[in-house]
Records
---
Amino acid sequence: MLRTNQSFLDRTITFYAQQQRQEDIVVRKYTKGQNLYDQGIASTKVMVISEGIVKCYFTEANDKEYIVEFLSTGEIVGEIESIRHIPSLCSIQAMTDVTAYAFSKAYFRELLERDITWSNMLLDVMAQRIVHTSSRASYQQLYSLEHSLHRLLEIQSQQDIAIKKEDMAAYLGISVRSLNRELKKFLE
């Protein structure tokens, strides 16, 4: 549920310390509730989260949100859009105060071309996301809502994070009303 990648963060910190031009990678801070990216809007940066938790979500045509995943330390965002030269596929919002390393797109692409370790690490991240998304989709098909909610509540407790009901419902792909019914069952 909460994805992290310490080795990717470590590599980013190394790049930050070694950069020749101070504008290639800058540190940005976001407050809880602030968007790092907005769905459909072009971004100028690729970011690696240093501290904090963000939610990655789609807003559908009917204004319903669907949370794809929660990301934290060491996770990269905006890389697909940079590689494909497209606007943001989804919105990314800070659930806590967030600090991120923001790469200029030009520097990010330069690193992809000249640093095989960085490129391989990024390939690994993308492969992990595909596996995670596939596993989550099959999990949601195979297990009951009650089971998925129980797992989400366990992970929330283990990670010591508070997730709003709206976000829990969006992550589970259900309405808040359905979530309330399921939560009521837990209390009975």
Note: The two ends are 26 Å apart (CA to CA).
---
Amino acid sequence: MKKRTALIVAAALAASALAGCSGGNGQKETGAPAAESTAAAAGQESETVDPMAAITDDGTKKTITYWHTFTEGARKDYIDEMVAEYMKEHPNVTINVEVYPWNVFTQKWTAGLAAGALPDVSSVNPDNLFAINQAGAVLPMNPLIDALGEDYFLEKPLDNFTDGDTILGIPYYLHSYVMWYRKDVLEEKNLSVELLSTVTAVADPPNRYGFTIAMSKNDQMCAQLLSCFAKAEGAPLITEDNKGNLTDPKVVKAIKLMADLYKAGSPEGSVNYGLSEQNDVFFQGKSTFAFGSGFHINGVKQNSPELLDKIAAVPFMGPDGENLGATTFVIGLMGWNQTKYPETVYDFIKFHFEKERYIDFLHLIPGGQLPATTEAANSAEFYDDETIQKFKPEIEYIQEGIEKGTFIGMDYGLTPAAAALTSQGIIEECLQDIVLNGTAAEEAANDKLNAAIAILME
């Protein structure tokens, strides 16, 4: 019970900040009772039941609940239309849709776990998915993958959602982090992307900043950025034996680089910035560099469309110029093992990925939502988009990062220890201590990280 409570608390903290497991947890059996009861009701042996069979349309009235987190206009409208289309094709199925921002989603499922009031299917981010898995509430997606074929989804993103032999969720859209910059500013000063020296040269506060280093302890942007620099150097933030690695010389060098970037050209108040404030500085044209995904294209387009021709991105390089790994992030879809209708859950999730429909969804935020299916990733239709064509090199960099990257703290596979990086503000506090107090804080931060990991791993 202590472990489950700790994981739920960690997930709540991490997901509320985000607006983003070890094997042997028995999840291979999760969801079996629901599938077996359905098989028994159909008068069949469970071993022979195809979860994608026509049981969904056997005439029995079925109601499932779908929680999703696409709260804004275009994507919310898209999901509403897709659900209506599914129900039209399956008139005996009713889907009740509930929409929550990430922090409310986390509160809902943690409360619902205790009350037995959970959905049948939902969108999910990694922070929540791994805690839900540890809480024993995941409906494994193995039957769906068996039905679709092992090559239906891109291998690395699906691996990142797999615990041992159990597929916890289905990746819906993907991204990895790259370094965005203003081409016009660098051209004006005849500079290349030599990060620290260029940031120093271009910074002219308050008119222009070099690189915004967001350090709010209520967010996880500092930890994500450190992960980008460290992974590029091939240095994990959490070791294979689930220990903090903040005193590794390569990680220390990355921490010092971030502190130097802050001193050289970050807004003074950015020690209190979270995701929104960090992004706004770049979106509004006030910063030369930023880290982020392809969503930055849409952010600039919405806030400063006149700058859209003036931005570009390159892969992350570590302090010593290496590019060995990347930090990725995935929004997925999952089933909940309390469902009475697992076959319908599988069928409804599959419906999201039918080619034309899926590409339409990805194009709602072109460049930000990259495909998880092999079909879409290799499809001319996906790339036949003005924005995707315009930012083709940047999107290729992001896709390369997806192919070789992992989630923050999960270099050696899924582990609840990673939540210590995203939920505790440890990295953020470490950087604040360095830039505000001049304290070499890596050792103390590593001790705090290990203490937090120990609680999560109990």
Note: The longest strand covers residues 328-336.
---
Amino acid sequence: MENAAVQNAKNDRLPFPSPVCVRTGDNTKREVKSVHGACEVLIDWPHARRGPVYQSTMEVLQSAMAGKITSEKAYEAFVSFAKHADVLVA
């Protein structure tokens, strides 16, 4: 089994085509550059706001981390989620 450092290095190789800027819960801006970064945002997402769009986006991100889909598909799903949640910063 791989250690966390090796796994994180692999996740860093899943960059987004371009950064996605979102507003976080404390109303600060966060630049998300990879599938791993998008997963961090969703892990911190408030439980009360986790609905079907959240669930499907998390599934897409996990599929990308497992190598089943491209980081570009994960990027598209995360951007759609951010628009839906009204946290995308233009």
Note: Helices lie at 4-11, 35-43, 52-65, 71-84.
